[in-house]
Write a structure and sequence with these properties.
Length: 636
Amino acid sequence: MKYVIVGTAGHIDHGKSALVQALTGTDPDRWEEEKRRGITIDLGFAHLDLGEDLRIGFIDVPGHERFVKNMLAGVGGIDLVLLVVAADESIKPQTREHFDICRLLGISKGLVVVTKSDLVEREILDLVKMEIQEFVKGSFLEGAPVVAASARTGDGLENLKAELRRLSLEVAAKSDRLPFRLPIDRAFVMKGFGAVVTGTLIAGAIERDAEVEVFPLGRRVRVRGIQVHNQPAERATAGERTALNLAGVEARDLARGMALAPPGMFRAARQIDCSLQLLPSARTLKNRARVHFHCGTAETVGEVVLLEARDLSPGGRAYAQLRLAEPGLFLPGDRFIIRQFSPVITIGGGVVLDALAPKHRAADPETARFLENLELGDAAARLELLVQQSGEASLADLVARTGWHTEEVMRVGRELEAKKRLKILGQPPAELVHAGHFEKLARRVLKALEDFHSANPLVAGMAKEELRARAAGPSPEAEPSALLFDTILQTLASEGKVEISGETVKLSGRGVQMSPQEAAAREQISGAFENAGLAVPSAKEVLAKLSIDRARAEKILQLLLKEKTLVRVAEDLIFHRAALERLRELLARQKQQNPKLNVAVFKELTGLSRKYAIPLLEYLDRERVTRREGDERVIL
Ligand SMILES: Nc1nc2c(ncn2[C@@H]2O[C@H](COP(=O)(O)OP(=O)(O)OP(=O)(O)O)[C@@H](O)[C@H]2O)c(=O)[nH]1
Ligand SMILES: [Mg+2]
């Protein structure tokens, strides 16, 4: 069974609802107030089977200018528009406005019905048809059928059904390759079931018992039951009129304008980078103008930040950032409508290019160029632009920003990786890094090491964390992630450019560079401690005997400590490694005779005074050579 969604459009009282009722037998005007006033206020729904293989879901919209916002909540997901024009009135303001909206939303198929054909003479009917043909020239409806019909007499209805069937069979199936998304157009309580929401499923598929996230609430709820076009179902797919019974939420917490999507995948957005189109009938749009924003079933007010010029002329196009008063789930490719703040009329629309962009300032040509590339590029070009813009981006961020499944981001990412445009890091994949960014950081790392070695000839290398901070360049927030930084170091090491030992990194072949005088000092220091055995002199005494200045002497001492030739056991107690090793051997031998010893035995064994013995024993405890037990120690 193929499902197609048909939306009505047209001026108030032109017979939209009567036509839907004549076609389906269902009165789409559900409310008492609608029936009493004889006008449609909110969306109405009805179904029609045209053959065994085709079911049409009608969304009937109000024509009244005050309810265009309700119309906008219904028209977002439609496949076909039924533009209704009354034969006795022809084209009127909301005929134009609704038609503009359909064009701005990129609706690509439809037909025109001249209703109330029973009210006019043949010549008038022909005249109206001609007017309509003129009116739709150059639009998606040029050349579309213009069918005369009467809801009252039934005239023309069979012809209309035949045209509807023909066009419906031409409608391309909506892609279910994108993640599930349902903009909510109604939320209510159903007795015995609880919260129910309805909407046109605009992407993906949803199954019973699935968990979904409600945007912008951020709440997770379970799908307890599904109906597709009023029939119970296990699953709903893109393009279908869908009702979901939700567990874990009250109907009063849900409303039109919210949207459902897979949990944890997307983020509600407030700043929308877009390509904006102004209707020729609109007034010049000024930078920072306030507008009403309609996207999917959502509606809020927003401010337009124009990125190219200070204002946008009627009929013009521009890249812009919309700053919204309330957040919502909007993804690249979504079409939207803007209406003048006051008086409220439709003035334009556009397409979302990026809903997770940073704040832009007005008249920012670089951002405008970026958005142009984003708009015109294919999937690979768009993904590359997003990765390039942030240098490195987590897979999760890219999923939220593109609106694609993780697998799709990875598929396109691998294509780009094969072309050496980016690198995919992590196992499982966690990050995408632009090749240019990677190279820039690698160059910065090498430069930072070069600078470090020149400034610190007596230090073996640079601490990793310091190097990572230096790789960020002037802006600290640009510091590479640990994963990226490690990958850069590994790459440079495998290219033989750097050497990593523990937490220290140095350029290959670089490190400590000493003058002959410094090398001699180093020997002197090392020798002084080694010769002293365990009865070591203070560092101060050793350094005082050197012929080089105090600062350099101190650095050489640090170097010896760092490379562990010398070991600092206490504040002013430094030993040579060899002496400590001999001590360990001594204790190992002692253990054969008696694994226990006290301070007195230790002093006797080593010939040391208390001043050395106590810190050394504590050092041995720390090193787990000995373990203290009361006044004694056990040699381990
Ligand atoms: N004679 C005649 N009257 C019609 C026909 N279709 C609708 N009407 C009448 O026109 C009036 C308006 O019809 P609706 O179907 O409510 O018009 P609508 O376009 O749905 O109006 P809104 O939803 O408020 O925009 C009603 O009184 C209908 O009975 C028709 O084919 N012939
Ligand atoms: Mg109506």
